[in-house]
Design brief:
five-stranded mixed beta sheet, 24% helix
Length: 89
């Protein structure tokens, strides 16, 4: 099973403990987390299901490419990290 982590900065707003999820894509992994904590959905994705601008998702150390559909694949050994994106200059 893939392992899903949410940064502490996200958990300050919505409880989201790390968990193992049966998923083949980032979308499936997040959907499993949303089933356990529905309030998390509104914080992570917009009303179209796309990843919100202020967040970043990494799968096995690589940023997701598909921020709209979250279709990036994961496997049973993947580690998925959801973190707040940093910006500035």
């Amino acid at each position: 099973m893939a392992h899903l982590f949410f940064a502490a900065s996200i958990q300050r707003h919505v409880p989201a403990p790390e968990r193992d999820v049966a998923a083949r894509s980032v979308d499936e992994a997040l959907t499993a987390a949303f089933a356990d904590e529905p309030r998390l959905r509104g914080y992570i994705v917009d009303d179209q299901g796309a990843l919100r601008r202020h967040l970043a998702v990494f799968v096995d150390g690589q940023p997701v490419r598909d921020r709209q559909r979250l279709s990036d694949s994961v496997n049973e050994n993947s580690r998925i990290y959801v973190v707040q994106a940093l910006s500035g200059g």
